[in-house]
Specification:
The chain is mostly beta strands. The chain is built from 1 helix and 24 strands.
Length: 308
């Protein structure tokens, strides 16, 4: 695989590198791509020496990764637990740019790329215990060694797939407002937009009724619960955003409090994978000094683009 340098992901991607006597220059119109559409760009190959090949391929490759715990017992009966990370190439979608042939030293070859993205993704997802990554590979099929260049390739989770029910979400995750009850407290938690979007701003309104009590604060948290859905699969909970609507002091009665925030630009949308899943929840936390905190929780869904 080539050593390469690239620009930071912006509107497009520019990548250059050299491998096995072939120089590559790859340009993509976008850094992140919608399922069901074409990823467009160009690639230029410059041959530093004469090269014979069985074909030139552009491939989109999706790889899933997940973690689980394995317990081993030795001959003395002692058990040890290890974290196992498994990887599986979920999809490989090749397009032949050129058939068998050869090019002499000094020749260049330009190709227009139009790569179909699967209509259901899956979307790029980057947690620890469960991941789904895409990459784009340009490769010459050469006996013995394949000159190539590759780059990370982001597939988005659009709003449409969540709202259409293609990806199952919790019952009230897509409702503009949902109720929660805990420890005698009641709340209605409204969010706008729904689903929430990675890197996007959001607003909300908390309508809450509680008995009067002394609190350290009323904290808001948006959490993503990620799980490897295999036997002994690991799970993790990631706090994506934290806010506060009240500080230390007496709190109680009926209150309505507006809030706003922005989600970080992390690839953690609501997703369903063959060996993993993620679900998001919004927590209203009544934090207490000498007692268990009260959590009022509603389900939410997270997309990675509102384009579709």
């Amino acid at each position: 695989m080539t050593d390469a340098t690239s620009t930071p992901p912006q509107a497009g991607v520019h990548l250059t590198g050299s491998d096995g006597g072939v120089s590559f220059e790859l340009n993509l119109d976008r850094s992140a791509h919608l399922p069901g559409q074409l990823a467009a760009g160009t690639v230029r190959l410059a041959f530093q020496r004469g090269t014979e090949f069985r074909g030139i391929l552009a491939s989109l490759i999706a790889t899933e990764q997940w973690q689980w715990e394995r317990t081993d017992r030795d001959s003395n009966g002692t058990t040890t637990t290890h974290t196992v990370t498994e990887m599986h190439e979920l999809q490989r979608l090749p397009i032949r740019l050129e058939g068998p042939g050869s090019h002499a030293a000094g020749e260049t070859r330009d190709f227009r790329l139009e790569l179909p993205i699967p209509p259901l993704g899956p979307a790029t997802f980057e947690a620890k215990v469960s991941r789904l990554t895409w990459r784009l590979e340009i490769k010459l099929d050469v006996p013995g060694f394949d000159p190539s260049i590759e780059t990370d390739f982001v597939v988005l989770q659009p709003t449409a797939l969540l709202k259409a029910g293609v990806i199952d979400v919790a019952e009230f995750a897509l409702w503009p407002s949902a109720d929660a009850v805990s420890d005698g407290a009641r709340a209605s938690i409204a969010l706008d937009p729904v689903p929430l979007c990675i890197g996007g701003e959001f607003g909300g309104l908390l309508s809450i009724t509680t008995g009067t009590t002394r609190l350290q604060e009323v904290r808001l948290e948006l959490r993503s619960k990620v799980k490897a859905t295999v036997s002994s699969g690991l799970s993790e909970e990631i706090t994506l955003w934290t806010g506060r609507v009240a500080g230390e002091g007496e709190f109680g009665g009926e209150k309505a409090m507006a809030f706003d925030g922005r989600l970080p630009e992390t690839w953690l949308p609501t997703i369903r994978l063959p060996h993993g899943r993620s679900d998001a929840t919004f927590h209203v936390i009544l934090a207490k000094a000498m007692a268990r905190d009260t959590h009022l929780v509603r389900d939410v869904a997270i997309c990675s683009t509102i384009e579709l």
